[in-house]
Design a protein that fits this description.
The protein is mainly alpha-helical and 215 residues long. The chain is 54% helix and 0% strand. The protein has helices spanning 5-18, 31-40, 46-59, 63-68, 71-78, 84-97, 109-112, 120-131, 140-148, 162-172, 178-191.
């Protein structure tokens, strides 16, 4: 059974106080860089993306330049991130698609998710960080943490649906808190609530979490 709303709000408040500086850790100068970096961050860390992105944007600073870039050169630059062939094709293709909007990153979920390699998680990051539009990015950390805490109906599903999780979490919390709460859950997942071998002894929710094994 999903946790009661009051318990969820209490746990969220504890996490916010435990990670008061949680925020998006992608380095970017404009919306295009934010979009590309978020696509590149799949299955890797923001820290690694931040190490690679300066060289990428030095070579191809805007969508027009990225669209016209040799695919092999994009692959060479982003190779340290892994999955570099599919990621290179995605950012080159989405850059080409931006020609339809005058080389501007669109500001709606519908338009963003039409771009290659852009799902709801990436679109929510771009909307929240690039347009100040409330969004709740649901990545693997958010799924893992909120499932363990039973914050949604997907908690016991071996293949949880991120869209359902997003919808249910958005119904619990006010829109102004969505972005920062997502960042808080992500940092909590990175630091303590690891997918494998979570550090339950150091968890600020260890007395509340149903996942913690107690004597």
């Amino acid at each position: 059974m999903r946790a009661p709303r009051e318990k969820i709000l209490k746990e969220a408040a504890i996490l916010r106080s435990s990670f008061p500086d949680a925020k998006c850790t992608i380095n970017f100068k404009n919306r295009f860089e934010l979009l590309v970096c978020t696509v590149l961050s799949a299955q890797t860390t923001d820290k690694r993306v931040n190490l690679v992105s300066p060289a990428l944007f030095s070579a191809f600073p805007g969508p027009k330049e990225m669209a016209e870039a040799p695919l092999e050169e994009i692959e060479r630059i982003i190779k340290p991130l892994g999955m570099y062939k599919s990621k290179a094709l995605s950012i080159k293709t989405l850059s080409s698609q931006l020609q339809e909007t005058g080389w501007q990153v669109p500001g709606s979920m519908q338009e963003l998710t039409r771009l290659r390699g852009v799902g709801r998680k990436t679109a929510n990051v771009v909307l929240a960080e690039g347009f100040s539009v409330p969004g709740f990015p649901v990545d693997t950390h958010v799924i893992c943490v909120t499932s363990r805490l039973r914050w949604h109906s997907q908690w016991n599903n071996p293949h949880p649906d991120p869209a359902i999780i997003e919808r249910e979490l958005c119904a619990i919390f006010p829109p102004k808190s969505w972005g920062v709460l997502s960042c808080t859950l992500i940092e909590f997942g990175r630091e303590i609530c690891h997918a494998k071998n979570p550090d339950c002894a150091s968890c600020p929710l260890k007395d509340l979490c149903p996942f913690v094994k107690r004597d």
